[in-house]
Amino acid sequence: MSVKDKTLSVLENNKGNYISGADLAKELSVSRNAIWKAIKSLQNEGYNIYAVTNKGYCLSTDTDILSSQSISKYLNKKDNNFNIKFYKTINSTNSAIKELAINEEKEGTVIISEEQTEGRGRFGRKFHSPKGTGIYMSILLRPQMHASKAFLITAATAVAVAEAIEAVSDKEAKIKWVNDIYCDNKKVCGILTEASFDFESGIIDYAVLGIGINVRIPKEGFAEEIKDVATGIFEYETSTSTDIRSKLIAEILRRFWHYYKHIEDKSFLESYKSRSILINKEVNILSSKSSEKATVLEIDNDCRLKVQMEDGSIRLLFSGEVSIRM
């Protein structure tokens, strides 16, 4: 770890408080000049660091830049099973993780970016990923499970995200089968799980778990095509807790990892069902060629959507897309 990274770690752990240059130099076993250079470099990257004679350096509480240091302070050693990599901008965190997976990167690698230029959701749709207001991250997994059970990863993630949102906000988080999280009847999060598996055995070689969250509503608003269906967990103007993104990421990682390591137990399943916004709702089952009307009866123990069609027949949906009929 560089002097700059070590300095940032100390400042993050003492955010809002002053620490002298002498104490920083002593703690990191470097010169005062090395600390000064590290501080200047961090300030050039956008960190709001106060420098006051006879007091030292202070990372302002209004600094809202994601880093491994800003997240790790909310994870204890038991929960921190991750190798977190940060980017200011990236085309797609899922695409970047795929490249690492092909090159035998270890499970638990996480890529987080302040923005995505080519963020995407299911069915190739674009995922709006503006700078500074959201969380855009992907996790590399090597679950050693059959591809037919990959849906468990998405379901466990949905519950972990919903619980994490409720832990850091006053919002109630609901789940729209299969992979969307809603607050105030609008979408705040999309989950995209992609996998590579052995064709003969059906065993997953690796899975890429992508999570995109609208933490705050952008000042300029959402893109025209999603402004009526998307919202943020927080209003931009009232989001004064600038550590909120780091706290939320830490909560998601901690909760997801617990479910993932016990995924066959399906301990998340009842929460997944109880959070559904589709039960007893009339929906349209969408495909590229048609739209069929149905009523949602339940979500079964394999996370399949049980629906009753207009002709009275019962169908179990493994995947696909549904929309609530208004």
Automatic annotation (TrEMBL):
The keyword Transcription applies. Keywords: ATP-binding, Biotin, DNA-binding, Ligase, Nucleotide-binding, Repressor, Transcription, Transcription regulation. One of its GO terms (cellular component) is cytoplasm. One of its GO terms (biological process) is regulation of DNA-templated transcription. It catalyses: biotin + L-lysyl-[protein] + ATP = N(6)-biotinyl-L-lysyl-[protein] + AMP + diphosphate + H(+). Biotin binds at S92, T93, N94, Q116, R120, G121, R122, K187. Acts both as a biotin--[acetyl-CoA-carboxylase] ligase and a repressor. Belongs to the biotin--protein ligase family. This is Bifunctional ligase/repressor BirA. The lineage of its organism: Bacteria, Bacillati, Bacillota, Clostridia, Eubacteriales. The gene is birA.
